């Protein structure tokens, strides 16, 4: 599970990851091993306190 400060933070990090040559090389090797990928955006419960 990954945590982000905001959806904009998530977007920028994902964009940087996709631009990474190292990530692209890893993704090519990983793809045959992946059957399914699922993304879910979770919102903390009102009683959750960070830190």
Structure write-up:
The protein has helices at residues 7-19, 21-30. The chain has one domain (1-51). The protein contains 2 helices and no strands.
Sum this structure up briefly:
The chain is mainly alpha-helical and 51 residues long. It is elongated.
Properties at a glance:
51 residues; mainly alpha; 45% helix
- By DSSP, the count of extended strands is 0
Mean pLDDT: 91
Low-confidence stretches: none
**Relative helix content:** 40-55%
- Separation of the first and last Cα atoms: 17 Å
Count of separate structural domains:
1
Continuous helix count: 2
Structural class: mainly alpha
Order of helices and strands: HH
Strand content: under 5%
Largest sheet: none
Which radius of gyration do the C-alpha atoms yield? 14 Å
What is the element layout, followed by pairings?
Blueprint: H1 7-19, H2 21-30
């Amino acid at each position: 599970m990954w945590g982000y400060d905001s959806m904009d933070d998530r977007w920028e990090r994902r964009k940087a990851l996709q631009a990474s040559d190292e990530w692209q090389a890893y993704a090519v090797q990983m793809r045959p091993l992946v059957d399914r990928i699922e993304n879910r955006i979770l919102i903390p419960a009102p009683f959750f306190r960070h830190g």
